[in-house]
Each structure stands twice: as C-alpha cells, then as structure tokens.
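To assess whether ligand presence alters the predicted conformation, the chain was also submitted together with NAP. Input:
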Amino acid sequence: MAELEGKRVLVTGSGAGIGKAIATLFTERGARVVVSDIDAETAEKAAAEIGAAGVANCDVTDEAQVQAAVARAVEILGGLDVLVNNAGIEISSPLLQQSTESFERIHAVNVRGPFVAMKAAIPHLMESRGNVVNIASIAGLGGSPLLGSYCASKAALIQMTRVAAVEMRPTGVRFNAVCPGFADTAMVERLVPDFEAATQVPFGDLVAQKQGRLGTPTDIAEVAAFLASDRASWVTGSAYVLDGGLSASLV
Ligand code: NAP
C-alpha cells in the first residue's frame, strides 16, 4: 500500500515551492490533497498539474478565510487527516532596523497563520486521529543575520508545535515541525543578494561549505510525508532537522 493511501490532506501555500512539492509527493503516495494558496491562479495551475483533489484558497493572515478554506477542504475530501502549515514568508533586515509593521507582518503569516489553521482543523483532526506538519526552519533553532524576525517566527512555530503535541496527546492527534536549511525555491532566490552583500561570500560557496548543496523541495516533502504517515505514529512534538549538516557544525 502507498505510504499515504487515502489520507485527506490540506497544504497551505502549495501553489509553489516546498508546498507544491509536498502536494505533489503526497498525491504520488496515495493521498487526496487540497491545494491552497494566497494566489488563486497559481493554486489552480498547481492543482491541475498535480492532479489534486481540489482547491481551497486562503490568505493565512485572514482568520475567516482560513476557516472557510478548512471547511471547503473538509467538504471536498469528506474529512481531514493531515494539515500541512507550509505558507510562510521571509523578510531580510537587520533586526533592530526592521520596522515594527514588517516584524508584525512576518509573525502574522508564519505564526498567527498556522495558529488559526490548527484551531480551525482540530475538530476534524480529532475525528480522524490525524496530524499536523508545520514547516518551520533551522532558523527557528539557531540565529542568522538578516533573518531576526524570521528566526523569531519559526522559533514560535516550533514551540507551538511542541505545546500542541503535549496538550493534544490524549486525543491521538500528532503535531510535528520540519526544520529545513536552505532549499532551492523562490524564497531563497530573493534572499541571495542581501546575504552576499552582508557576507561578501558567493552564496553558492556558502551553501557548498555549510550544507553540501541546496536542499530540494522534494527533500523536505519526503520528511513531511514520513511525519504525516502512520509509520510515524509514535512521533509527536518533534522538530525534525534536514539541512545537510549545517546546524551540526560550529565552524
Ligand atoms: P515560496 O517559494 O515563497 O512559496 C511560498 C508559497 O506560499 C507561495 O506560493 C506564496 O504565494 C504562498 N504564500 C505567501 N504568503 C501567503 C499567505 N499569506 N497565505 C497563503 N499563502 C501564502 O517559499 P518556500 O521556500 O517554498 O517556503 C515554504 C515554507 O518553507 C515557508 O514556511 C518557509 O518559511 C519554509 N522554509 C523554506 C526554506 C527554504 O530554503 N526555501 C527553508 C526553511 C523553511 P506567493 O508567491 O503568491 O506570495
């Protein structure tokens, strides 16, 4: 039987990048996936490419939209087994030069978004004894220049994952976080010029030295698939690192 046979899944921010790779791999492994994105056209295109079960769009900063997207996904799928909170943004800035509005924006997407999505999904996940996979980052475990507010937001996401896992353990609903290093997506492409300016090192050299290579969106989807599957039935509250060894090294 395929790893995710029959699993009913909603993935936020799955029109592109890591979310799209998760929606694709989960579908290949037998899941029925509802694609969701802030951009309707991107979502429709991705869903058609993937052969997804449907589309339920939302901007994760809008609680009413998130609630409606979860309800629509449940309607399409006939229930919900897995919520993947993938939608996230980066803003590069020295922390103490960042505007308060920009700091709040990153938390609205990366922390409040998953929070309201988990609240909307929990009644359905309790019914299915399902699970949540939160796409965090190694930036939630260690600091990085230029990514102060992003680091803070991903640390918050990891901590919410842990607390939800402990509080909800009696219900059988599992919560796990995935913490990737740099992966090959539009988000990292946007960061490269600022990183190169700050470090004076070509980004390709930095990546080769620190993590061997860029991660692929599929590297991350593979770990998400394991955590979402019944093979991970004893895994909850984890923050699973995949970064080519970047965070393992002090030099
Ligand atoms: P990406 O290429 O920018 O894709 C993110 C997707 O989320 C896009 O389709 C984007 O739509 C959508 N999105 C943005 N804001 C949204 C909102 N408010 N509501 C709903 N959807 C929204 O990013 P990615 O690299 O795939 O990142 C996916 C997740 O992995 C993020 O949580 C990120 O923090 C995390 N992560 C990424 C890396 C990496 O190296 N790439 C490493 C660690 C963790 P638009 O393009 O239309 O804005």
